[in-house]
Amino acid sequence: MLEVGLIQLRTPASQADALAQASPLVREAAGSGAKLIVTPEGSNILQRDRTKLFEAIAPLESDVAVTGYRALAAELSVWLLIGSALVRRGDGKCANRSILIAPEGAVAATYDKIHMFDVDLPTGERHRESSSYTPGDCAVVADVAGARLGLTICYDVRFPAMYRALARAGAQVLTVPAAFTRPTGAAHWEILLRARAIETGAFVLAPAQGGTHEDGRETWGRSMAISPWGEVLAIADHDEPCVLRASLDLDQVEAARRAIPVLINERAFAAP
Question: Which residue numbers are catalytic?
């Protein structure tokens, strides 16, 4: 059984304040027995003003929040997945990066968000993530506390082929840390997460940002954990910062894939 903790946040516009908000929740999750703790997208800083954001963004190695999360993981002896941190790459560009920290505080794996949220919503909201971040080009699976973890971030959830590839690579648990907008969250959040779990026969862990943030953005919250059969194991029915706990029986992954063997039955076909 893998005990997990999902941290729902309302991340502020500076790394120091972000760490101050998240730290007690991470401690609470560890104190309740979680061995894997997952935070949302943008767990180190959320700032809509691009000028201020780019001035604040730092390399992974020197980011105040990332450094603090690493120290927490080591102190608490837990696996900690920073759902994503907004960091500066070696070439000076920026990345939306998921960072897996081992119990001794070392960075065990990283994943740079592949799919950029470039949309014009019916509400008039306009988002151009690609204007701020360079997308990644490699999917990532990592070993964590006896489980195989497939790393994704937010908008990736709309691209099912990625999740099938992670499942085929052995992922038993899929992480979807997010900062969903309120309109898209209300319409699609739970449906997409349950679909990804069902079609891969994997657990889905989706910690989220929630509420009205310091920079004015509004996010949906409603963090949740979902079983390989598509059942909601735990959900935060609000957008306030909190800790969500779940116990994952990894045998359920094999049982779900044996019952509905879509990963085996899938066939190549010619596109129309």
Answer: 41, 113, 154
